[in-house]
Amino acid sequence: MYSHIAAKAESFTALPVFMVAQYVTELQKVTLRTPIKMHLTEGIYSILDLCKEHDIKFLMAGLNLGVREVFNELYSSYTHYHKPQR
C-alpha cells in the first residue's frame, strides 16, 4: 500500500506527514515480527521520500515524547540506509 501511494505522489501531497505520524504512533503500541516490520519499514521509507524538510520538522515538533523517539529511530535509519540510495 505504501509503495502504491508513493508511486502516485502527486495525488497524496498533503498526506505523507500524517501517514508517517500514524505509522510511528501505532508502531509504539505494538510489537511486530521482524519480517513484517522490515516490509512496512521499506514502505514507510517510500512515504518519507515524499516528505519535505518542513514536514520532518513538523513531525519532530508535534509528536509526543515516546512517539518522537520512535520517529527519530525510523528517520535515522531512513537517512542512513535508504536516502543515499535515491
Topology:
Layout: H1 2-7, H2 16-29, H3 34-50, H4 53-62, H5 65-82
Any descriptors?
86 residues, mainly alpha, 5 helices
Question: What value does the Rg take, in angstroms?
Answer: 12 Å
How are helices and strands ordered from N to C?
A: HHHHH
Q: Tell me the count of domains.
A: 1
Cα-to-Cα separation, first versus last residue: 20 Å
Low-confidence stretches: none
Q: Helical stretch count?
A: 5
| Percentage of residues in strands | under 5%
Strand pairing plus helix content: what structural class? mainly alpha
Q: Tell me the number of strands.
A: 0
Mean pLDDT: 86
**Which of globular, elongated, flat, extended, rod-shaped describes the shape?**
globular
Q: What percent of residues adopt helix (DSSP H or I)? A: over 70%
Largest sheet: none
Question: Could you give a quick summary of the protein structure above?
Answer:
With 86 residues, this protein is mostly helical. The protein contains 5 helices and no strands.
If you had to describe this structure to a student in words, what would you say it looks like?
- The chain has 86 residues and is mostly helical.
- It has one domain (2-85).
- The protein is built from five helices and no strands.
- It has helices at residues 2-7, 16-29, 34-50, 53-62, 65-82.
- The longest helix is centred in the last third of the chain and has 18 residues, at 65-82.
- The radius of gyration is 12 Å and the shape is globular.
